Amino acid sequence: MKNPYEVLGVAPTASSDDIRKAFRRQAKTSHPDLHPGNKDAEERFKKLSLANEILSDPEKRKKIDSGEIDGDGAERPRQQYYKDAAGTHGRAGNPYENTTGFSDFGGADDIFADLFGRGGRRAKSTRGSDLQYKLEVDFLEAVNGAKKRISLPDGGSLNLSIPAGIQTGKTLRLRGKGSSANGAGEAGDALVEITVRPDRLFVRQGNDIHITLPVTLSEAVLGGRVKIPTVSGSVMLTVPKGSNSGSVMRLKGKGVAHDGGHGDQLVTLQVMVPREPDSALEAFLSTWVPASTYDPRKDIDL
Question: pTM above 0.70?
């Protein structure tokens, strides 16, 4: 396991209060209750809890600072302690002996000055952790792009731009919006996974938009111009004479923007008769005699 300071994204000089706040802030975003079934979130929460347990215990924190225990809280073999290595330097028969001698590095004091900062804590700088979030956006926001704001568990917020054409499962990266760095290192990033809500009218397939358009019997038989919604606003569509349910019409360039171009919108017609009885229509159809060549079921083997 990594150093607990790195897990919590705090400096080795952090106070007990800083450690407690860092744990609460990160635990809120990784708690298993917020990500049911997400093994990665569950594992991260376990690591955060262990790191907090070690650094909240003065004795364990002292041992992690001196290298006596590792990031899992397990004791290290004594021959691997830095102080023990210095104390046994040059001892005959020691299998962990530094045979080159500390003089090659300017003396033992220089080594410990490089490895440890004030109070015996490591002085290295480490990049802050990335934080993961999830965001649902409306269908039209995903197709056309939008500006959104995410409210964070700690009360803060993030502003982000949703690029036009984004799809479910894509992740946006906000540089430097993750956990604070350890020491002078750079902050981590915020990773925002996008989920696109389905729309009641539009369905996306690749860069094309599909829609089913109900038309009246007279519009299908006689043709006409009808108003139809698209992802970029309403337009007028000409329905040809003699259209049937299932007929597909294509609106060029009314789909999703991509690589400097646009997909199309495909319109499937659905002929609808009145839901309530219409005596005039019934009277007309009772006297209407179709041509002898008209058989809507001729392609079905009955």
Answer: no
